[in-house]
Amino acid sequence: MSDDKTAEPKTLYPVPEAFAREALIDKARYDEMYARSISDPEGFWAEQAEALDWIRRWDRVKNTDFTGDVSIRWFEGGQINVAWNCLDRHEATRGAKTAIIWEPDDPKAPNRLITYAELAADVRRFANVLKAQGVKKGDRVTIYLPMIPEAAVAMLACARIGAVHSVVFAGFSPDSLAGRIEDCGSTVLITADEGLRGGRKVPLKANADKALDHAGGVGTVIVVRHTGGTVAMKDGRDVWWHEAVAGVSDDCPPEPMESEDPLFILYTSGSTGKPKGVLHTTAGYLLYASLTHKTVFDLKEDDVYWCTADVGWVTGHSYILYGPLANGATTLMFEGVPTWPDAGRHWEVVDKYGVTIYYTAPTAIRALMREGEAPVKRSSRKSLRLLGSVGEPINPEAWRWYYDVVGDGRCPITDTWWQTETGGLMIAPLPGATDLKPGSATLPLFGVKPLIVDNEGKPLDGACEGNLCIADSWPGQMRTVYGDHERFAQTYFSTFPGLYFTGDGCRRDEDGYYWITGRVDDVINVSGHRMGTAEIESALVAHAKVAEAAVVGYPHELKGQGIYAYVTLIAGEAPSEELRKELVAWVRNEIGPIATPDLIQWAPGLPKTRSGKIMRRILRKIAANEHDGLGDTSTLADPTVVDDLVGNRMNK
Length: 652
Ligand code: WT7
What we know:
Elements: H1 17-22, H2 27-39, H3 41-49, E1 60-65, E2 71-76, E3 79-80, H4 82-94, E4 98-103, E5 112-115, H5 116-132, E6 140-144, H6 149-161, E7 164-167, H7 174-184, E8 188-192, E9 195-197, E10 200-202, H8 204-214, E11 220-224, E12 238-240, H9 241-245, E13 257-258, E14 262-268, E15 276-281, H10 283-296, E16 304-307, H11 314-326, E17 330-334, H12 345-353, E18 357-360, H13 362-369, H14 374-377, E19 386-390, H15 396-406, E20 413-416, E21 450-453, E22 464-470, E23 480-481, H16 485-493, E24 500-508, E25 514-519, E26 523-526, E27 529-532, H17 533-541, E28 546-556, E29 560-569, H18 577-590, E30 599-602, H19 616-623, H20 640-647
Parallel strand pairs: 4-17, 6-7, 6-8, 7-14, 8-11, 11-12, 16-17, 16-18, 18-19, 19-20, 29-30
Antiparallel strand pairs: 1-2, 3-13, 4-5, 9-10, 14-15, 15-23, 21-22, 22-24, 24-25, 26-27, 28-29
Helix pairs in contact: 2-3, 4-5, 4-6, 4-11, 5-6, 7-8, 10-11, 13-15
Bound molecules: 5'-O-[(S)-butoxy(hydroxy)phosphoryl]adenosine (WT7).
InterPro entries: Ac_CoA_lig, ACAS_N, AMP-bd_C, AMP-bd_C_sf, AMP-binding_CS, AMP-dep_synth/lig_dom, ANL_N_sf
Catalytic activity: acetate + ATP + CoA = acetyl-CoA + AMP + diphosphate
Cofactor: Mg(2+)
């Protein structure tokens, strides 16, 4: 017997035989389906589309062009309604099945189990409320809610009447909310009195009021009474949700939506400028979210499925709501956080409901791993059969802990690579088909054609490393940046003409497995949340005492990447601990807590080229404490600034 401590860690985890026998898709089937999806996309997707309920069949499956102005259209001529597909069509066979299990922040507070029939009626009723407020097909509705069932009801009610929802994560500041309301011109805002996270209250209504002080256009605010905290209600504008729905009919015919009518806008950060409104449309998105949900999570009728994301992110849209409900699954919605009241909370929830599929982020796994095995081992977790990971590359140590400790060595892990822009999972193992390698998202899903190119755009073959592109369209792809199609074409299709560029670096190994290496642009990934460095920089320079700022990511044990800010003060201002705290609070206030800088270094000067461009490569190295390999600094306007930055670096 080899001693475990000296043995090389296992790098290949074959599909467990028992799992493969029961799985929806085994290896042979994956190979055959994938090959077909690439050789005959129209035939493949037309066949898959039969799984949905159409009002009118499509005339043309795929009409997409990644060149020129870029145009992406799927299932043209078809008509369909997303809410109908997620709810009403299940009523006959699954009316009494639980659609949503809601587990509150406080483990002692009452939970809620909502059946498909109840959820369908709630959605139809609230859809009528929206109509009564004047909301019509194509109007935008902003949703700023905590993780409560009303968030699902509000989103689906929009889908039912053809309104376009824009969900803003409840952790964003009033300013961020205002910017997103204005950008898409919402007329209605849906919020709650307060949110609850880890026992702490989040003043959502007060934030919404501040946002509306300087964002025009919103005539109605619908407020969910959640905590019962006191909030100000503005006459003629604000209405309580429970009062608005009282006595309203639950009869509301679904709006026939064209396949390419917008379903939702979701703002996400890029490498430049303000957040972009990623626009997803109706039929292709729903088909892609539901097919990937079913196959990657090997969904069976009796599964209890739990995705721990927030509905404020795309993972919540596609894999708490639309994918699972379209598939008639039981989806768990959790209001709280993994570490409160203690680090055993998630496993208690797993046991409480017999969760079979658990889908979370590496940052959560690392946070729980730090607390040791005891809080995990207090629970049985016998119900679990499949684990998932999303949001950032999962380091092999965390992968193995997840596999061995959480899954007791029994549950495959599906590491899912995708983006807000892709609408659904793109590269991920099918648990009954794909042997696993810790740290690799493995192989492409149906219809996905990854291409790795070098910096000149030359496609690379075989084992290689470079920039990850996708060579052809898939139904879940975003269609445009809301209100700015040129920015869409420019951001995603101009770096490598004719290809969708993901912004990620990637390696392909000798078995054809993909290993995402992280962003190659100025986007950083903090705890699985995407932040544009430019956004944080503009927040910093908006402070009266800041002359200039440069923000980079650096390796962070729990968060994956932390936020490292170099700040140059205006002449006459002196650095102090107090000012440092003030700037941290300032950024939290401008953007939201997720943008909180971890480290701020006072920089008398920033390394710039003679043409005035900040050399971020150097700043990243210093932040990563890799200043020995700074490379060529001779092109800098003033090479001495580097010595100062290295000498005073924060990450020692
Ligand atoms: C970026 C997209 C849609 C998922 C939630 C985040 C990184 C996401 C993985 C993964 C390695 C990953 C990429 C991507 N990412 N999942 N499994 N392995 N990296 O969505 O905010 O749009 O961020 O997250 O860098 O580009 P997002």
